[in-house]
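Contributing new complexes? Match this layout with citrulline.
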Amino acid sequence: MARSFDFTHALLRRPGLSAVKGLRAGGGPDPDFAGLLAEHDAYAAALAAAGLDVTVLDQSESHPDSMFVEDPALVFPEGAIVLRPGAASRADEGEYLRGELASRFEQVLELSAGHADGGDVMVMPDRVFIGLSARTDRTGAEALARLLGRLGYRTQIVAPPPGVLHLKTASSLIDEQTVLATAPLAASGIFAGYRILEAPAGEAGGANVLRVRDTLLVGQGYPGIADLLSGRAANVVTLANTEIAKIDAGLTCMSLRWRAG
Ligand code: CIR
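Output block (do not edit by hand):
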């Protein structure tokens, strides 16, 4: 039986030059474009090495944050959902992606109310968590829960402790029973019933990791997290993410991943 992270395909979008002007909550310097591209290339190569069929779409200069394809859509073997990202500058990214989804999925559903970012959606083996955030409001979360129900998924709307961009900024699926979470999220009770690995003090920034088949992709510079995850998957691969981190991004945001039926 396929595990929830036994993906076969990934869809990415190359960063354009405008990506260096991507949104960031805390101000801070622009990322270096060559560095951003190198991190993106290494990420695409790591997904391919993990066994995925990887497609990289052309960049969009008019959508600075569009390399973070995870936020404007959700994809499942049963179909795709076009979301309504909560940041004004990202609002039409879902529409921009719709054609690509329609050519790959039998059904494409549309979020029609409120706002929701894919970064707030965590697909677990037994349910889909939808986190409320500055990008995902209750109207959007409830509308999304109805759409996920149509695709056959059980959902749970959760309110993570404030201060993070997305639910998955602070937590990640490691395997069918296990999550990695920052201390506040670990203490929140959201993951009751799962085995929780808590990100060590000072390493909250590394809590976004990506499980793909037998590989775990982990950000560079978090030795405690690397230790914690060692042996949790056949391959634990460390990737540089200093440039994407300057625009508040981690490893899950840069791809849409699904298992083709
Ligand atoms: C943004 O603020 O929307 C982008 N600069 C970063 C998006 C990161 N996406 C994610 O965590 N899913």
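Reviewers usually confirm one structural detail per submission. For this one: The pocket of citrulline is lined by residues 22-23, 65, 68, 70-71, 87, 90, 119, 165-166, 169, 247-250, 253 (CB under 6 Å).
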